[in-house]
Amino acid sequence: MDRLLLDAQTLDPHTLDSHTLGPHAAPAEEAALGALLRCWLREVGGPRGHVHAAGPHLTLRVAGTPVRVRVRGGIALRFDGPPEHLAEGRWRPLDLPALVALVESELGREPDGGNEEFATQVRAGREAVAAILAARARAVPPADPWLASEQSLVAGHPFHPAPKAREGDGWLDYAPETHARFAPRLLGVRADLVAQEGDTAALDAFGGAPAGYVPLPAHPWQLDLLAAELRGPLADGRLVDLGTGPRAVVPTSSVRTVYDPGTGMCLKFSLDVRITNCVRKNAWYELSGAVELTRRLTPVFERLARRFPGTRWLPEPGYRSAALGTRLLEGLGVIVRTGPWAVCGPGTTPVLAGALAAGADGVPGAVLARRAADPVAWWEAYVERVAFPVLDAFFRHGVVLEAHVQNVLVGFDAAGWPVEAVFRDLEGAKLVAGRHDLTGLPGEVAGPLSYDAARGWNRVAYCLFVNHLAEVAATVAGTADGVLRSLWAVARESLERYVANHATGLDPLAPLTGLLAGAPLPAKANLGVRWARAADRSAGYVPVPNPLGPAEGERR
Question: What average pLDDT does the segment 365-373 reach?
Answer without folding.
Answer: 97
